[in-house]
Specification:
With about 260 residues, the chain is an alpha+beta fold. The chain has a single domain, classed as Deoxyribonuclease I, Chain A (4-Layer Sandwich), CATH 3.60.10. It is about 20% helix and about 25% strand. It is built from six helices and 14 strands. The strands form three sheets. It has a six-stranded mixed β-sheet with strand order 3-4-2-1-14-13. Strands 5-6-7-8-12-9 form a six-stranded mixed β-sheet. The protein has a two-stranded antiparallel sheet with strand order 10-11. Helix 3 runs parallel beside helix 4. The relative contact order is 0.16. The model has no long low-confidence stretch (mean pLDDT about 95). It binds one DNA strand of 18 nucleotides through loops.
Length: about 260
DNA sequence: ATGACTTGCGCGGCAAGA
């Protein structure tokens, strides 16, 4: 079973790349973030014609998450813990796979910059809510994949220039501590389960030739419950997607579960 | 270098991203 995650930075701008990606890799499940459109503007017909079921949690202009699946899914939208949170950053679904059910979430964790505004405490509070919800999900003892754009650089090995990120919301000690608290519930960072290699990035800024200089960061992650981690066969970062014309600034990360 | 791109909104430049 192949599960991938990709921050598309506008699904309508990226539709051609998205359809090509589905055709090339045939993921069973693809989690999308930063749709930047409302549900009725999602290119549903095109994606369904490619053989996928679609569940969307969108909003106007910003954010927006979706799960694409070859098999029909049962869905839950929104992260519990704050009914007044209007930002569309979480959607979760259960996906049938042979004789089991796999639970998958598509996550767009708040950026948090600029630090010193209300955006950073919103990020930390959102992370607390995610930790609380993940704790509940882990009690189910089922294969669980929490996939998405976490806007967290877990360690200095996950960025080209750690000094440049020292005071950034993606890399501050408090941000990384909360990410570790999430992992310490019993989740496995899929990529780090298979390699200690440095220089593996999932985002390169559009500005200042970041891609050409390989000035990247690793912020897109798939976190696995023990029942999913036991099935992990391989992890791939689809870096070639950043070299296309009109790319997203993020690339997909893809895992295979036995 | 409070910059550099890219996107949405909507038709003129902001806000937001990371």
């Amino acid at each position: 079973m192949i599960i991938a995650t990709w921050n598309v930075n506008s699904v309508r701008q990226r539709l051609d790349h998205l359809l090509a990606y589905l055709k090339e890799h045939e993921p069973d499940v693809l989690c999308l973030q930063e749709l930047k459109c409302q549900d009725d503007a999602f290119p549903r017909l095109e994606v369904e014609s490619a053989g996928y079921n679609v569940v969307v949690h969108g909003q106007k202009t910003f954010n927006g998450v979706a799960i694409l699946s070859k098999r029909p899914v049962e869905v839950r939208a929104g992260l519990p813990g704050d009914e007044n949170d209007a930002q569309a950053r979480y959607i979760e679904a259960t996906v049938p796979d042979c004789d089991r059910i796999v639970r998958v979430a598509s996550i767009y964790l708040p950026n948090g910059n600029p630090v010193g505004t209300e955006k950073y405490p919103y990020k930390l509070t959102w992370m607390d809510r995610l930790i609380s919800h993940a704790r509940d999900l882990l009690k189910l003892e089922e294969p669980l994949v929490l996939a998405g754009d976490y806007n967290v650089i877990p360690s200095p090995h996950d960025c080209y220039d750690p000094a440049a990120w020292a005071n950034d919301a993606l890399f501050l000690p408090q941000t990384r501590e909360k990410f570790r608290s999430l992992l310490n519930l019993g989740l496995t960072d899929a990529l780090r389960a298979v390699t200690d290699e440095t220089g593996l990035y999932t985002f390169w800024d559009y500005q200042a030739g970041a891609w050409q200089r390989n000035n990247g960061i690793r912020i897109d992650h798939l976190l696995l419950s023990p029942q999913a981690a036991d099935k992990l066969k391989s992890v791939a970062v689809d870096k070639n997607m950043r070299a296309l014309e009109k790319p997203s600034d993020h690339v997909p990360v893809r895992i295979e579960l036995a």
